[in-house]
Amino acid sequence: MQIRPAKTSDIPAITRIYAHAVEHGTASFELTAPDEAEMARRMADLTGKGFPYIVAEIDGTLAGYAYAGPFRTRPAYRLTVENSVYVAHDTHRRGVGRVLLDALIAACEAAGHRQMIAVIGDSTKQAASIALHAAAGFKHVGLLPDVGFKHGRWLDSVLMQRAIGDGGKSEP
Q: Residue 171 domain-assigned?
């Protein structure tokens, strides 16, 4: 498995992976999958602001992607990021998510970020994502019940948090 920064040429595969998650899953609360132009705009926005956006390849095929972005926009949150990890549905349970998450944490630490937040949709169907984050050192910090409605049912969001580097133990 190779981890590398995402490129514009990865957008079609990234779009397919995300579209499957939107259309068939509950990890994303979007109801309609964005097109390639929108996914390219989102990537350019994040990378243009210095946030990491990475992909995993297995035998030359894009198997997943991950990125970090601002947790919230107010200045005091500037050292806290929210992570996203998406793995192609046909490569689940092969360790792709863990390798991507570990690489993303390392990239965020190198960039000086101090906290990472995971907002995981649907605790009943996203047990694997919750377990992935727990294995990577995230702690459960909250639950937002019934905050989304998708696929004919109410969904909650699980909040998990992990310190990066010194976390809150020292000033930036």
A: no
List Cβ neighbours of 79 (8 Å cut-off, separation of 6 or more).
112, 113, 114, 115, 172
The answer to whether residue 129 is domain-embedded is: yes
* 172 residues of the chain, pLDDT tens digit each: 999 999 999 999 999 999 999 999 999 999 999 999 999 999 999 999 999 999 999 999 999 999 999 999 999 999 999 999 999 999 988 899 999 999 999 999 999 999 999 999 988 888 899 999 999 999 999 999 999 999 999 999 999 999 999 999 999 9
Specify the length of the chain in residues. 172
Check if the beta carbon of residue 6 is closer than 8 Å to that of residue 53: yes
CATH of the domain at 14: 3.40.630.30
- The whole model's pTM is what? 0.96
Q: 56 forms bridges with which residues in the sheet?
A: 3, 64
* Domain contains 170: no
Q: Which domain holds residue 110?
A: 2-163
Distance CA 131, CA 58 (A): 23
Structure tokens at 123: 């605790």
Q: How many domains would you assign to the chain?
A: 1
